[in-house]
Design brief:
By secondary structure, the chain is α+β, with helices and mostly antiparallel strands. It folds into 4 domains: about 20-125, Gnk2 domain, C-X8-C-X2-C motif (Killer Toxin P4, Chain A, 2-Layer Sandwich); about 140-250, Killer Toxin P4, Chain A, CATH 3.30.430; about 290-380, Phosphorylase Kinase, domain 1 (2-Layer Sandwich); about 385-610, Transferase(Phosphotransferase), domain 1, CATH 1.10.510. It is built from 15 helices and 24 strands. Strands 11-15-16-14-13-12 form a 6-stranded mixed sheet, with helices on both faces. Strands 1-4-5-3-2 form a 5-stranded antiparallel sheet. α12 runs antiparallel to α14. The longest helix is centred in the middle third of the chain and has 21 residues, at about 400-420. The chain is elongated and about 90 Å long.
Length: about 625
């Protein structure tokens, strides 16, 4: 009798499982454009659906087809994906049901998708092969009661999903993986086995698959936090977890690893994009309204796990990687070093400051990641690297003709004027240098790296600090000697950069060795005072420049590097002078001598981190 009951139970479960696989779970017709029943598009759609069904016994459970029409709007594309553990017979049954049902659900629409337990089927007038699609999705949770320990349970589920992302995305043939592990609560009799599944359409790249999975995983806390089972499904991928084996364990050939640790607590399943109206914990009180927060897994995916091939720069407390989102957008990903003393402070500053800034001559912050010890900034990608990459290279500097150099100078000046006077906040950058001036595809300059920037109130003119951080040779003398800084500190740094652009020489004793001068400022001043200013112009320009523009720029540069703060112009006056070559020129005085002041042991271009009256140097790469 017991044996008969067991057989009946197994048959019933088989019927329920099979029946559930043939019930549409969700669908979307997008209601964009429609076709008429006797149109060429409808005929091509019928042909496509028949073609998909004919290929539903393929081993990898995936197939894509296109039926072309004589006109572009008659062409129809389609694909199906069966769950990685189902048999070819079950796959064919599911696609057979789906091809009939989708025509009932999406009456006359030119785009449609239907999901079942065992498969999905979709068609569209637009190509979909190899395209990450997150335009529509659905979530579904197990109707059973929620767990009594949601935090611990969701933590384990999140860790399990973390473990399957790589096997899914790197799978050959099928981008499909499953995992099971045990879950128990100390001091209770609660004990369950948790099963998770992840799958992407095989036409996605590894990176696109990882991104899609991360977004799907991050949907779960919003819909189903604490639920004993749930799924999140996109056209290009899906994830699911349950407390029962909802997939064919033997067909999936799962190898159960050791259970993931529950303690210490891991970061929660963070949404890929947080609501913009929030202020992140640990930040300043400036709301981060213009940037978004990315999940760390997404950052890993777009940078190919921070591969060396993607690295485009390195600094004393950060590395910069090139990343690419599925839509093709390229970004620069700045990953702060975990060992850097200034890392957390710089991160808080850059997010809070740059999120508020919008100007064509400032690098735009697109988002950030703050997860565990990871502090990451996502910027727009600027293709032509930094100014120093061109300016101080004997061959590349030839690409910088005078009109380009003048455009760079004016762009930097405009960006600084915005920071000092025109933005919603008065901001002092404090680390202006050639390596922080990035160049876009049209060689427009963009100021970057706001890690050391400081906010001033509208009526505040000066600040001071006991800790000097910056790059020697670009820092103003009052900042180096006394820790005093103001907008005029940035003006000084701008003057140094301007003279570097004109001469093509670094502000260092090494580059000035052949000239007999100690540094670029004394070199420029010597020639100016001897009325030989044009002799300092970069020889690679071959005399092809505007004499008036160059002389005016040298004059402005020397005015900006005056030792007396009050003698330096504001950035508004700088721009006025740069655009008024016939104006009466102010006469500059001798700029400061850098080797006075008790800091002879510091090399030009070296990153300085020191306390007043206590010099300590970190020999770092320029950031």
């Amino acid at each position: 009798m017991m044996m008969m009951m067991m057989i009946w139970f197994c048959l019933l479960m088989s019927f329920i499982t099979k029946g559930s696989s043939l019930k549409a779970l969700s669908w979307d017709c997008q209601n964009t454009t429609s076709y008429t029943p006797k149109s060429t598009y409808k005929a091509n759609l019928n042909s496509l659906l028949s073609n998909l069904y004919s290929n539903a016994t393929r081993d990898n459970g995936f197939y894509h087809a296109t039926v072309a029409g004589s006109r572009s709007n008659d062409t129809v594309h389609g694909l199906f994906l069966c769950r990685g553990d189902v048999s070819t017979d079950d796959c064919r049954s599911c696609i057979g049901e789906a091809r009939t049902k989708i025509l009932e659900l999406c009456t006359n629409e030119t785009t449609g998708i239907v999901w079942y337990d065992n498969c999905l089927l979709r068609y569209s007038e637009k190509s979909m092969l190899g395209i990450l699609d997150q335009s529509t999705w659905y979530q579904m949770s197990n109707p059973k009661n929620e767990t009594q320990v949601p935090n611990q349970f969701m933590e384990l589920v999140g860790n399990m999903f973390d473990q399957i992302i790589t096997p899914v995305s790197s799978g050959s043939g099928k981008k499909f993986a499953v995992l099971q592990t045990n879950f128990s609560v100390a001091g209770t009799l609660f004990f369950e086995t948790v099963y998770v599944l992840g799958q992407c359409t095989p036409d996605l790249s590894n990176v696109e698959c990882q991104i899609c999975l991360r977004y799907a995983i991050n949907e779960l806390p919003f819909c189903c936090y604490g639920a004993l089972g749930a799924r999140a499904v996109y056209p290009s991928c899906n994830v699911r977890y349950e407390l029962y084996a909802f997939y064919n364990v033997s067909a999936a050939a799962v190898a159960s690893p050791a259970p993931p640790p529950i303690h210490p607590p891991a970061p929660p399943l963070l949404p890929s994009v947080f609501p913009n109206s929030t202020t992140s914990k640990g930040m300043t009180e400036i709301p981060i309204e213009e940037s978004v927060q990315y999940d760390f897994g997404t950052i890993q995916a777009i940078t190919n796990c921070f591969s060396p091939e993607n690295k485009i720069g390195e600094g004393g407390c950060s590395s910069v990687y090139k990343g690419r989102f599925p839509n093709g957008q390229e970004v620069a990903v700045k990953r702060l070093s975990r060992s850097s003393r200034q890392g957390a402070v710089e991160f808080k500053n850059e997010v809070a400051l740059v999120a508020k800034l919008l100007h064509r001559n400032l690098v735009k912050l697109l988002g950030f990641c703050l997860q565990g010890e990871e502090k990451i900034l996502v910027y727009e990608f600027v293709p032509n690297k930094s100014l120093d990459y061109f300016l101080f290279d004997p061959e590349k500097k030839r690409l910088l003709n005078w009109s380009t150099r003048f455009k760079i100078i004016v762009g930097i000046a405009r960006g600084l004027l915005y920071l000092h006077e025109d933005s919603r906040l008065k901001i002092i950058h404090r680390d202006l240098k050639a390596s922080n001036m990035l160049l876009d595809g049209d060689m427009n300059s963009k100021i970057s790296d706001f890690g050391l920037a400081r906010i001033f109130m509208a009526d505040q003119t000066q600040g001071n600090t006991n800790r000097i951080i910056g790059t020697y040779g670009y820092m103003s003398p009052e900042y180096v000697k006394h820790g005093l800084f103001s907008v005029k500190s940035d003006v000084f740094s701008f003057g140094v950069i301007l003279l570097e652009i004109i001469t093509g020489k670094r502000n260092s004793s090494l580059s000035m060795k052949s000239t007999g001068a100690k540094d670029l400022l004394s070199y420029a001043w010597k020639h100016w005072s001897e009325e030989r200013a044009l002799d300092i112009v970069d020889q690679s320009l071959r005399g092809l420049y505007s004499r008036d523009e160059v002389i005016q720029c040298i004059n402005v540069g020397l005015l900006c590097v005056q030792e007396d703060v009050d003698e330096r112009p504001t950035m508004a006056n700088v721009l006025l002078m740069l655009n008024s070559f016939s104006a009466t020129r102010r006469t500059p005085s001798n700029p400061p001598a850098f080797f006075n002041g008790g800091i002879e042991r510091i090399s030009f271009g070296e990153t300085v981190d020191q306390s007043i009256n206590e010099v300590s140097i970190s020999d770092l790469y320029p950031r």
